[in-house]
Structures are given as C-alpha cells and as structure tokens.
Amino acid sequence: MKKKLFIKVLVLIFSVVSSCEAKTYKGKVDNLSKPFVQNGHFGRITSLTLSPNSRYLLSSSRDNRITLWDVATGRELKSYEGHSDYVRDIKFIDNNNFLSASQDAIIKLWNIDNGEKKYFFGHRGGVRSLNISKNKKRFISTGGDGKIIIWNIKNGNIEHFINTNRSSVNDAIYANEDNTIYSINTKKTIQVYDKLLKNKIDEYYIH
User: Fold this and answer.
1) What is the dihedral sign for C-alpha 91, 110, 100, 57?
2) CA-to-CA distance for 30 and 161, rounded, in angstroms?
3) If we measure between CA atoms, which residue out of 13, 7, 145 comes closest to residue 77?
4) Residue 153 to residue 16: CA distance in whole angstroms
5) What percent of the chain has pLDDT over 70?
6) List of residues 6+ apart from 114 with CB closer than 8 A
7) Strand order in the sheet with 180-185
8) Per-residue burial over 45-63, b = 16 or more CB atoms within 10 Å of its CB, e = otherwise
9) Is 149 exposed, middle or buried (0-12, 13-18, 19+ CB in 10 A)?
10) CB 87: neighbour CB atoms within 10 A?
C-alpha cells in the first residue's frame, strides 16, 4: 500500500507539462504563462502538506529542498533552498506561509513568494516534526534531542518546552481544542501532556 502511494506521488511530482524549450520559473506563483522545467526532487521525499485552500502542495526531500506544486495542473511552481541538511517535515500555516523542520536542527518560516522570513532555534538535534495549533498562534516541534517545544509563531519565542528524557520524540500533536498534547517517542511510548507541557496526564505503551 505504501509503495503504491509513493509511486502515485512520484507520478504527480515528476510529470512533464511542456515539451517545448523551457525556462526555469522564478517569478510569483500566480504567473503560469511561461513554459518552465520541472526539476522535482533529487532525493527521497520525506513529507507533503496541502494548503488550506487546497491550491498548493508542498513536498520536502532528502535533497535539502522544498518544492511548491500547483494542485490543479500538477506543475512545479517554485523551489526553496536554505537548509544545510535534509528537510523532515513541512506544514502550511495559511495559504501564503509555511514552516519547515530539518535535520540541521533549524525550523524556518517561509513565504511562498518571498522565501525565508524567520528562524527558530531551540533543538540540539534534528527536528522530527511540526504541528500547528488550531488558532494558528503556536506550533509544536519535536526532535532527536528528546525535546518537545511550543513556539509562538508571531515573535518566534519559545513559550514552553519539556525534555522527555527519551532519545528522540518522533511526533507531537494538539488535541481537545489545543488543551492537550500527545507525543510518541522511539521507545514506542505515547505520552499525554497538558497544553503547557507542565503535567504528564497519561502514558501508553505500544507493543
């Protein structure tokens, strides 16, 4: 099942939309009048995220790049470079801005037209995952350093964090109207925290 899904994604991403002599597209994403080359990715795809209006798809890869695609046409619109190691996760905040998490331990905020806008430093190992709160004011990141961090998107500050004393936290999500946080680590344990990461509410072991 996973193999079939991976093949479908590759077909979407690497489809060629023009057989004529093409130029690489470098303008705003709304200008699709000129032919261009679809470079796609040169490494394994690590994550996909869809914009809230379902117009754009973002893909990240082990080639350290992020690529923006037009959902309706399957066209590659733009590529973003700036991470020094592979990108593990990406998430749209709104239709124009998105976050990226990399093995280089840096989280970046991007604008789809203008590129990099803000950096978030706080992890000492590769950042594994990103998840945005329902109100779009905060996001959670997890890392290979065993940390879960809650960030303020607007000012870039760390609001709360916890060191789980685990070798790595693979993912964390908001639940119950952003009042609860669920995380999973490499020890096959799901841990449940309050929204401030101050109290561990529960713990489940996966066999």
Assistant:
1) positive
2) 39
3) 13
4) 36
5) 82
6) none
7) 169-175, 180-185, 189-194, 200-205
8) bbbebebeeeebbbbbbbb
9) buried
10) 29
pLDDT tens profile 86-141: 999 999 999 999 999 999 999 999 999 988 889 999 999 999 999 999 999 999 99
The predicted model scores a pTM of 0.77
Assigned token pair, 70: 């037009």
Tens digits of residue pLDDT in 20-46: 333 333 445 555 556 656 777 888 999
Position 124, amino acid = R
CA distance 143 to 51: 24
Edge to edge, the sheet with strand 138-143 lists 127-132, 138-143, 147-152, 158-163
Helix/strand/coil for 7:
helix
The side-by-side arrangement of strands in the sheet containing 45-50 is 45-50, 56-61, 65-70, 76-81
Mode of pairing for the β-strands spanning 169-175 and 180-185: antiparallel
Segment 152-164 mean pLDDT: 94
**Tokens, residue 81:** 């470079």
- Residue 97, beta-bridge partner list: 111
Q: In angstroms, what CA-CA distances link 164 with 128, 189, 197?
A: 14, 11, 10
Q: What per-residue confidence (pLDDT) applies to 42?
A: 85
